[in-house]
Amino acid sequence: MKQQLLIALGSTLMFSLPAAADPFAEADVKLGGDLHGKLCVACHEQKYGGKDGSDIYIRVDRRVNSPSALSQQITACTTMLNLDLFPEDEMHIAGYLNKHYYKFK
């Protein structure tokens, strides 16, 4: 019985690890990039610099240090700018940003 429990637990853990490797695995990164380009870049260029506003993501003192902080920041921007995005759209943007800048696991 104990051995079966350990095997079941090990199998569950083994199959759950790949999903845990990318916090935004369900994101459509291309769509996220398109949304980011359309909705985020102009504001970030103006406020933080960089040819595409990317200085906000690569600055030393950045506030976003975890996947949940990234999601929260995108929601805050969406709310402040009244962008009327669906949560799925925010996830796509988070997936794009994570892939290209943050690299959270």
Put simply, the count of helices is 6
- Going by helix content, strand content and strand pairing, the class is mainly alpha
Strand content: under 5%
The total beta strand count reads 0
Average pLDDT figure: 86
Note the main sheet. Answer: none
How many distinct folded domains? 1
Distance between the termini: 34 Å
User: What best-fitting shape do the alpha-carbon axes yield?
Assistant: globular
What low-confidence regions span 5 or more consecutive residues with pLDDT below 50? none
Q: Helix content range of the residues, please?
A: 55-70%
H/E element order: HHHHHH
Q: Please compute the radius of gyration using only Cα atoms.
A: 17 Å
Task: Provide keyphrases for this structure.
6 helices; mainly alpha; 105 residues; globular
Q: How would you characterize this protein structure?
A:
With 105 residues, this protein is mostly helical. Helices cover 70% and strands 0% of the residues. The chain has one domain. Helix 2 packs across helix 6. The longest helix has 20 residues.
List the helices and strands and how they pair.
Blueprint: H1 2-21, H2 29-39, H3 41-48, H4 55-58, H5 67-80, H6 87-102
Helix pairs in contact: 2-6, 5-6
Tell me briefly what this model is:
With 105 residues, the protein is mainly α. It has six helices and no strands.
